[in-house]
Amino acid sequence: MAGRIGNTAVPIGSSLSKLQSLNGLFAVYKKQGPTSADVLNALKEALLKEAGERRPNPRKRKKQSMKMGHGGTLDSAASGVLVVGVGNGTKMLSTMLTGSKRYIAVGQLGKATDTLDATGSVILEKDFGHVTELDMEEKLKSFTGDIMQVPPLYSALKKDGQRLSVLLKNGHKVEAKPARPVTVYKLTLQEFKPPLFTLDIECGGGFYVRSLVDDLGKALSSCAHVKELIRTKQGQFTLEEHALHEEQWTLEHILQSLQPC
Fold first, then answer.
1. What's the pLDDT tens digit per position in 42-70?
2. Among 142-156, 161-175, 230-244, which stretch is predicted with the lowest mean pLDDT?
3. How does pLDDT run across 169-225, given as a tens digit for each residue?
4. Where are the alpha helices (DSSP H) in the chain?
5. Where, residue-wise, is CATH 3.30.2350.10 in the chain?
6. What residues does 203 pair with on adjacent strands?
7. Closest CA relative to residue 172, chosen from 158, 182, 185
8. Of the residues 75, 117, 214, 215, which is catalytic?
């Protein structure tokens, strides 16, 4: 059986060699539901299966025949661009963590949740009838530029080597991390249909959209949580132009979209 690269038929053994020699960055589309790690493991499995490795176990690092990582975790409930580094490209992922990102977020006024998004339990309900579109646009100005932000308790941040979200789910008491500086380059209100509103956000590394929406709800004398979140851009990679969907998780498509080291 042979794979295809461009117009050239390539034997399976050659496919594995090409896979192992890949070095660079590319982007995939992460759908709602799986974690970023789940997506990465499914991608590895699809590529190794195409290259002829039987029933690969991508979670066993010692037996890895390819080196791969992602730059910037997306919440399981979020979708959009996930940048992947392969080979020496994994060394470039740190720039993805600190670089510019863009999101479309749908928030819901009147309800706050423990996770700050729709996956959590409602912990507070407040009236939002007094909130106007003009009020929201005015408050957004105070969340633009260099600001201080407290990360969510349910996050990928770690304490003693374990993620805060895992500690919380296991019943451990977790204290909030201190506020830290983050940058918001652009923040606009795209739609206002109470209780729902849509934001277009361009931000730097370490920024949490969930915290922004939670803080915005409080600033409006109400409360809010993220109902839907899509990452539309990370670094030079955009959702429309660069993100490979599952049916495109092949060596051929990756070779066509790979940005070399």
1. 999 999 999 887 654 555 544 456 899 99
2. 161-175
3. 666 566 666 899 999 999 999 999 999 999 999 999 999 999 999 999 999 999 999
4. 12-20, 36-50, 93-98, 133-140, 164-169, 209-219, 251-257
5. 101-234
6. 101, 184
7. 158
8. 75
Q: What is the pLDDT of residue 72?
A: 85
CATH fold for domain 101-234: Pseudouridine synthase (3.30.2350)
State how far the Cα of 229 lies from the Cα of 212, in Å rounded to an integer.
12
Tokens of 180: 């830290």
The pair of structure tokens assigned to 258 is: 């790979």
Token reading at 251:
């060596």
Rounded to whole angstroms, the Cα distance separating 165 from 77 reads: 14
Provide the 8-state DSSP code for 33. Answer: S
Q: Is residue 127 among the annotated active site residues?
A: no
The predicted model scores a pTM of: 0.85
Q: Which amino acid is at 209?
A: V
Q: Amino acid letter at 65?
A: S
| Total count of residues recorded for the chain | 261
Q: Are 88 and 69 in contact (CB under 8 A)?
A: no
Both ends of the chain: CA-CA distance in Å? 31
Q: Strands 101-109, 224-234: parallel, antiparallel or unpaired by DSSP?
A: antiparallel
Largest CA distance in the chain: 66
C-alpha triplet 74, 75, 78: angle, nearest 5°? 85
The DSSP code sequence of 112-126 is EETTSBTTS-EEEE-
